[in-house]
Fold:
Amino acid sequence: MRIRSHAFWMALAAATALAAPAAAADLTITCRCVEGGANANLAKWIKESVIPSFAEKKKAEGEEVNVTLTEFAGSDEQLTQQLALDFSTGSGPDISGFDGFLIPSFVEGGLLKPLEELVGEPASSWEGWQHISEGSRALMSYKDQTYGIALGTDVRMIFVRADLLEDAGIDPETWQPTSWAELLDAARKLKEKNPDSFPLQLNAGVPMGEATTMQGYWMALLGTGEQVTDEQGRYIVASQGILDTLNLYKAIYVDEKLGDQRAQMLSDGRNRTFANFRDGKTALLVEGDWFYRSVTAPDSEFAVENRDEVMTWAKMPAKEPGKGLRGQDFVTISGGTGFVVNPNTDEPELAWELLAHLNSKEQLGKYQEYEPRISIRDDVPIPNAPFLSETSKELLPLTTARPNDANYNAVSAEIQRMTEAVVSGELSPEDAMARYRDALIRIVGEENTVSLLQ
Amino acid sequence: MRSFSLLSRSAGAAFLTPAGLLIGAFVIAPFFWVIYVSFTNRTLLGRTAMNPDFVGFANYFSLFDAASFFTRGEFGFSLILTVQFVLLSALAGQAALGMLLAWMLQSVPKSLKRLTEAVVIAAWILPEVVVAFAWFAFLDYENGTLNMIMDALGLPPGDWLLSFPFWVIVVFNTWRGTAFSMMLFNSAFSSIPPSYFQAADVAGATSWQKFRDIGLPLIRGHVVTDLILITMWTFNVFTPFLLTSGGPSYRTEILPIYTYRVAFRDFEFGKGAAVGVIVMLINLVFALFYLWVTRRRAKGVAA
Structure:
């Protein structure tokens, strides 16, 4: 009798454990977002809106869910490093902030699983897909498989301190350079007016990571009519476009000291460039619209005083009119960041539910209250922000994207090294390009590279 | 003579097994794994993560590729930089400064000796991250203490971390490690019978003569031990990373930082493992030399 009752309790305990696994499910979410730091609005939105409403929603369905946000305070590159190591060892957050350009290399490395495989039906039949364009879905896709959902796309431009331009005798209302020469001319005038300043910022160097490749190198290279790869997807390892781009860097940082050379080499360099812009040391800074939405937003660390009066923007010109990509006069490039589901998650469906909730019409609508941005969903109204509507109207038709290729991440690191070698004065543009060529042949194999020089 | 043992052979084996398993799993297995990986092109990201190829000695050849060997950011540059770093910061810095301090401490009042020891040891026991942060603040271009001092003296400020990164890590490592050599030499000097020095004093010897003819010859064994140990430590030290991250432009990328970058920032496990194997071989030479010296000394004492 006694033995039997013992067995009864054991069985009951086991049955309870199996029948009610949702005593309290735990989910973790990570992003490079810190309240009072980088991407503060994102952190606030997730903590104040996404998590409580998700917990409430699950509670109504009879499930207790604890969601915790880990606010990652390091750089984008450090987060990538952390995630790569986490995902490869079967750990990490259930959902993580993720830059779309990394998807191919993570997928080929076996570190991400398609939503269809990981979650299955709930993900493929999600109502949100009808409101997200194919192009936007592609931001977090690779080889026809989707791995996450982007929060939105972005565009790049020159941010301008109108007050400084005015001081230097340039009319900010009409200033729009149509060639690199005009851009450099404006920088020279600014430098003349204030010799201690660093009027122009075009990202370079290893510490800034992808921000060097995207905001710096690409923005210049596209102005020569080239991209990092040719039409057949081969990596260009020697060309006039690369040389022109590197010579532009050399003019800015070495020959004429128009830019803050130190900021390109120090580990906190990117923040220094933001501080330069805030403090009026830099008047022209090439960045993505994130710089407007988040970095210089009121109350943030790099908030620009009287922003609406002193800060404007201009399009990045091609080297010469008509010499840009596809014969364009102006160039820009877009990427997309969002969230992915960890392939090792214990609760793939629940994690997906959270991701879907985060990207629901209601939550993305809420996000606009924290940070106005062109949403990825077409059923979320466009915020009443003239900057966003103007820039996207002008720049989206001109934009292009990075190669969706597993080697791109490693190639990008070589690009950063190449720019650093030039802006530090270590190598000439020709030598830096030769080293880049050798490195790329090592990474992608000679058959996947091409030289456009005779 | 039958050897004496507390335990039976099987009991001894049973006691050894847990430790053996742990060492096997966490030291021996990774050791062979690293050697194996160094012959593949395995990465963490991209195609070669899932299906690495066996590439033979290709990783080793690329490390010793004559065309790029001496280029900044390559293996050869890093190796030479590390040798310079060891010569300057360990041998010339830590050992020489430690010797000087230890010798001077022999002839100062006891209270001053205690105080100096306390200060030097404090520099030694502080956590590395705290030390690195303090140095970072000390050397900062805009608000650093050093530049404030330069300014007060009417000297131009220096951009230390960017203009003299290598000298910064040399001074840093000297500052960091001198305590060990000083303490070791200090106790070695204390073991010399005071009567030797008293006799020398009576003969009117100078401090230098006493050091050259009495102090140094009697602690020669300790000096050799110290030099080998600090060479090995400095060769493998990672802390300068906290100050310079190996930059700017790889100018402070000593071998441990280079290995870390290749394996865990560029995620090239194959190449990183190859560097690891070479570093392991270099360390093996140091270790064998150290064992040889200590054995020889042990024999010398016994004889």
Q: What stands out?
A: The CA atoms of residues 107 and 113 of chain A lie 7 Å apart.
